[in-house]
Amino acid sequence: MAITKEKKQALIKDFQINDKDTGSAQVQIAVLTEEINQLNAHLAIHTHDFHSKRGLFQKIGQRKRLLAYLKKADLVAYTALIEKLNLRG
């Protein structure tokens, strides 16, 4: 269920601010979004997997907090990230 190392490295490369960046809010949000999408697909099949559902809710909460921080800190980066990740319908 976890994302592969290659997929995570690709996400980091796509969303990093500079060459050494691996932990900025944008990168963390992108990785969490990929994990959330995979958990959603898993839970569509395994509807009674409540432990994974709890993990999904925790990841959604973490992403929500990071998005709120990014919105407060850098509105331009926030809107660009929302569009790139296709969030907020």
TrEMBL record:
> Which key words tag this protein in UniProt?
Ribonucleoprotein, Ribosomal protein, RNA-binding, rRNA-binding
- By its UniProt entry, which Pfam families does this protein fall under? Ribosomal_S15 (PF00312)
State the protein's name: Small ribosomal subunit protein uS15
Highest taxon listed in the record's lineage: Bacteria
SMART domains (UniProt xref) = Ribosomal_S15
Share what the entry says about its subunit structure, partners included: Part of the 30S ribosomal subunit. Forms a bridge to the 50S subunit in the 70S ribosome, contacting the 23S rRNA.
A GO CC annotation given for this chain: ribosome
NCBIfam families for this protein:
S15_bact
Instruction: Report the sequence similarity comment from the record.
Output: Belongs to the universal ribosomal protein uS15 family.
Gene3D superfamilies, per database record: 6.10.250.3130, S15/NS1, RNA-binding
Organism of derivation: Paracholeplasma vituli
> What InterPro entries does the database record attribute to this sequence?
Ribosomal_uS15 (IPR000589), Ribosomal_uS15_bac-type (IPR005290), uS15_NS1_RNA-bd_sf (IPR009068)
Name of the gene encoding the protein in the UniProt record = rpsO
